[in-house]
Amino acid sequence: MTDSRLRAPGAVGSCGGGAVSDRDSARLVEEAKRELARLVPILDVLTGDLDAPTARARPAADEWSPVEIVCHLRDEESLDFGARVRVVLDGGSAFVPIDPERWAVERRYREMALAPTLDELRRLRAETLGLLDSVAPERLQAAVPHRRLGSLSGLDLLAAWVAHDRLHLQQLVATLNRLWADRWNPLRVEYAGPIPYPRAEAPRSQP
Fold this sequence. Notes:
- The protein has helices spanning 22-36, 39-47, 52-56, 66-89, 100-106, 114-134, 154-183, and strands at 143-146, 150-153.
- By secondary structure, the protein is mainly alpha-helical.
- It has a two-stranded antiparallel sheet with strand order 1-2.
- Helix 2 runs parallel beside helix 7.
- The chain is elongated and about 55 Å long.
C-alpha cells in the first residue's frame, strides 16, 4: 500500500509533494477520474468468466488469488484511499491506521465469492467518482500528517490511487498468466515470454 501528501493555505500539515497550482490540481483530478473509471470494466473483462476454483487459486503460496486481489481493491476503496481523501476534505488532522494484509486474513478474502465482491467495488468506485465530481480540486491540496511520509495531500492520495489500481491490475494479470500456464502444462506457454512466478511443482507419485 502506498501513501503520499501536499497542502493548501490553512491546511493541516505541509505540502509533502511540493507546491501544485490550482490549474494542475484541476488537471490531476480530471485525469485521475478518467483513470479510476477504467478499473472495474477492466476487472470485468479479466475476471468475468473465472470459475470459483480459479478465482481462489494462488500463483504461489505467499501470493494472492484473483478474488483476494479484488477483495483488497474493494476494501482499499472505502477504508484506505476513500477514507483518507475524506479526512483531507473534512479538514481532519490524522488518518486511521490501516493493515491491509491483516484484513486479507481476518476477512477471509480467499473464501469470498468473486462476482458480489466485484459488484461492491463497482458501487464504491461509483461513489468515489461522484465525490470527485463534487469537489473543488484546490481543496485536495490540503494535507494531513503521515507517519512514514511526513504528510499526504488529497492530490498525493489521488495520484497514488491511480498507481495503486495499476499495480494490482499488473498483479492480477501476472497471476492469471501463471494460472493459465500451469493449467496447460506441459504445453510450452513460456514461448510467449517469461511467465511470472515459478511453475507449480507437480505432485509426486507414491512409490
